[in-house]
Amino acid sequence: MPSLEVLIGGSIVVALNLYMLMGGADYGGGVWDLLASGTRARQQRDLIAHAIGPVWEANHVWLILAITVLFTAFPLAFSTITTFLHVPLLLMLIGIVFRGSAFAFRSYDLPNDRAHARWSSVFSISSLLTPILLGITLGTIASGRLMPAPGNFRAAFIDPWLAPFPLAVGFFALALFAFLAAVYLTLEAEEPELKGDFRRRALWSGGLVGLMALVVFLLAGNGAPELRRRMSESIWTQPLQVTTAVAAAVAYFALWTHRFRLARLAVIAQSTLILWGWAIAQFPNLIMPDVSIYDTAAPTATLTLLSAALAGGVLILLPSFAYLLRIFKAGH
Amino acid sequence: MTDLLAARSQMAISLAFHILFAVAGIAMPLMMVLAEIRWIRTGDDALLALTRSWAKGTAILFAVGAVSGTVLSFELGLLWPEFMRWAGPIIGMPFSLEGFAFFTEAIFLGIYLYGWNRISTRAHIAAGAIVAASGAASAVFVVIANAWMNTPTGFRIAGGQAVDVDPIAAMLNPSALPQVIHMVLAAYAAVGFAVAGIHAYLFLRDPTNVFHRHALSIALTLGGLAAVLQPLSGDFLARAVAVNQPIKLAAFEGHFQTQRGAPLRIGGLPDVENRHTPYAIEIPYALSLLAFQDPTASVAGLNDFDSDLWPPVAVVHVAFQVMVAAGVAMMAVAAWAAYVRWRRSTITSSRALLKTLVLASPLGLIAIESGWVVTEVGRQPWIIQGVMKTADAVTPMPGLIVPLIVFTMIYVFLAVIVSLLLLRQFRATPRFTGVRAA
């Protein structure tokens, strides 16, 4: 039986994983809204709005869940992150606010093409920026440069995140979210032409994911040395990386040969493996290089109760989510 | 402006903004489900149109509430990292539970809004009812956390750190129940009155439209019932404050001199310099009676305490007066509406009542905003009463004036947009003049 710290730390990664697969794809949808083009631009946008409309609010809550579990179980890690990553988190929040409200305004306002177009661009631009900032935040946590000497504003609050490695992780996250969305949308689309549009988008954004993965890996040498050392030295990394590469290849092959269900399965596996690869490499550190889940954990009473609440919450949540997806995503 | 003041202002503005959408998220789903149930019972198409119209309003308000709530969950750490580091293990539980309640609300709101033609009517109403219930549950959990800041329990302090942490005992702190009841009733009363006022206005301009009559009936029933019960819950809460936070109670009342048989002050402006509250109407013995159920009980005045531990007395007292005045006015209007309903069978027969409802429309929201000033400013200088000062919890991040300005601008912008959108929804109200459709 793993310790409570591991269980709860793992549940945060699960929440982030689901946020990536669901909420991340909603951001990706916003990106494709921004990049809608050609004679079917209107249909592409309608398809995206139709696909994320009923689910985006629920998908967004995974992030809130991850945050509340983090500050309940690992308060020191939370306060360190929110103190020294104040700036990118704040920018991310602005993106979250504009993405969500613009989408709701667009969906529920009375039909009016000019206002519709205006909210569309607010929605899509904030969908583009928010994942980058989320990636920058996670990249900084992984970089090992988060807790600098306080006193010097730039050194403490700016330099750790405004660096090549976190920025690369930001664009990696954006590419991954766009890739996820494009693959999902090949299944949401009914017409063959529209399927083709998103297949092409999936193919080239998938290529971008591969490229960014390489860039992140290369920059990690200087930008996140300890993480990179662990990733290349421990025994589990080779099989994990090989599996991730296989999933990526299957996704690409499936897209190429129009097997969209298989492509979706593969891309879900690929992105899940990427996230867990990172989490396992960091383990047991919540913040690299030396803030671990063990020395920031809340007292046992809190951890026990929180585990029980998480188990109970999942019992309510899973059937509810299954019901939501059965109603709106059945047949896709 | 100091960074501390900027942080406090940003938190205050974020809460003041979010709470309007949060209360809408509690009360609007209930009203929309009630309208749908009535539609099923009567088959009146106006009720279906009303349900859909309220559902649209709920969707917009919920979306803005969801994102402004996300901002707040981060701001706890962005602005008050030391508070979160210290209190997270003790009071993080209700926030996590709130996360699940919010999840349920978001899932079933999606089902409700987009599922009209995909699920049975019964399942649809059930989805709406789950939205209403989980919205109320969210409020319960968040208010429990706030109540803990007023009356912290569930831990022991050793060497400056919390030990023997018991999150259940923290959730069952003495302010939790009275604050929860007060807040949930406030949500129903405020939203019920706000919506009733809007439809009273529209009804006065378009008296043959039964759409507004239905809307008024549902909104006023909910708002009126809550408004009548609210003074009781206020009394329950004030008694808890009297026992647990005597300085806060003294600030509510602008009460400086400890005395037996203390009077209740209505109005007045506390003069902290000279330690008295002039221009108030004083009702003898009433404060002792209300706070301790004994007209001769001694009520501690601010003079008994070090003035470093006083909240800004004038702000708290005036906000308290505004809240109570708004609450009493709403109760009176609710009683009047009940009387009209009883004597003449329909509330729309009294134009005077309808006009008053229009004027009373913002009262509940004003009461909620001033009520939060009362409880939050009234707790100062503490962020956790008696344990941690607000000044010790603030982030070391400098330049907090910048996010304050940015978020203020965003919230003002969103408030304007939401108002315009809702206004357009009201303008587009469908007309239903006929008698009941089959």
Structure overview:
The complex is a heterodimer of chains A (332) and B (438). Chain A is mainly alpha-helical and 332 residues long. Chain A contains 14 helices and 2 strands. Chain A has one domain. Chain A has a two-stranded antiparallel ribbon. In chain A, strand 1 (285-287) and strand 2 (291-292) form a beta hairpin. In chain A, helix 1 (4-34) runs antiparallel to helix 3 (56-73), helix 1 crosses helix 8 (164-188) and helix 3 packs across helix 4. Chain A is globular and about 55 Å long. By secondary structure, chain B is mainly α. Chain B has a domain at 178-396. Chain B has helices at 3-42, 45-79, 81-114, 121-150, 167-171, 176-205, 210-244, 246-253, 286-292, 313-344, 351-360, 363-379, 390-393, 401-427; strands at 156-158, 161-163, 259-260, 264-267, 280-283, 298-299, 382-384, 388-389. In chain B, strands 1-2 form a two-stranded antiparallel ribbon. A two-stranded antiparallel ribbon of chain B has the order 3-6. In chain B, strands 4-5 form a two-stranded antiparallel sheet. In chain B, strand 7 (382-384) and strand 8 form a beta hairpin. Chain B is globular, with a radius of gyration of 23 Å. The mean pLDDT of chain B is 93. The interface between A and B is large, with 62 and 67 residues.
